[in-house]
Amino acid sequence: MSLETAARLSEILLALALIQQSLEHLRGGRDEQILFLTRIGLCGLVIAGLASPWPLVALAGLSLLILQRFQGPYNGGSDRMGLLALWCLTLSRLMPSLALRELVFGYLAAQLVLSYVISGGVKIVNPDWRSGRALRDVFQFSAYPVAENLRRLAERPRLLRAMSWAVMLFELAFPLAMVSRVSLVVALAVAASFHLANACLFGLNRFFWTWLAVYPAILWLQARLV
Fold it and tell me: Angle 9-12-15 (CA atoms, 0-180°, nearest 5)?
């Protein structure tokens, strides 16, 4: 996969993710509607490939106004990854040389790897994750619309402990997937399935679309390095 192809695919996927997020705000106040209708319009230009890279530049500038409006990335990790992807894609398009474009795009891919490794590291030092209690609390007390039959998983401590360790070990071992294209594709499929399950079960839909938008970057980086 060439740099141009990977970057273009990431731009389209990120634009679709931002449109999905923006639709949630169209019932807000007038100022909020203007911000997010503008973002939807700019995302449409990105998807169509018109006037590149200026719609990306405008989206990056608009992101600062949205940060000011909500006093930070109000939706946590998914917003931070979305901002990182947006700014990296924008800067990559603006770089004057191929080497610099590759450096910025590669940085985005490296941050994706770190997002899994750091997440696994935070979990594995937490005794509640090692014992499975953290997952038990998710199923038992979560405010998200978990189906009642899934809440019964809270009564199966051994299964939850095994699930906890599976998640932690997968996240910590994620960099090993970079050794080959096949192993990376398998790892990304597993990771995407995990994000999709969280979206379906707990309503964490932003994580799925935002992380998916960065996958072309890591596929490009693996091919570039191996």
Answer: 145
What are the tens digits of pLDDT across the range 194-221? Answer: 888 888 777 777 788 899 999 999 999 9
Burial class (CB in 10 A: 0-12, 13-18, 19+), 94: middle
Cα dihedral sign, 98-104-108-110: positive
In the 8-state DSSP scheme, what is residue 96? S
Q: pTM for the full model?
A: 0.89
Which two structure tokens, joined as six digits, stand for 99? 């080497």
* Residues 3-12: tens digit of each pLDDT: 999 999 999 9
Q: At what angle do helices 205-225 and 98-124 cross, to 10 degrees?
A: 120
Q: How far apart are CA 137 and CA 97, in angstroms?
A: 50
pLDDT digits (tens, 9 = 90+) for 137-162: 777 766 665 556 666 766 787 888 89
Rounded Cα distance between 111 and 105, Å, is 10
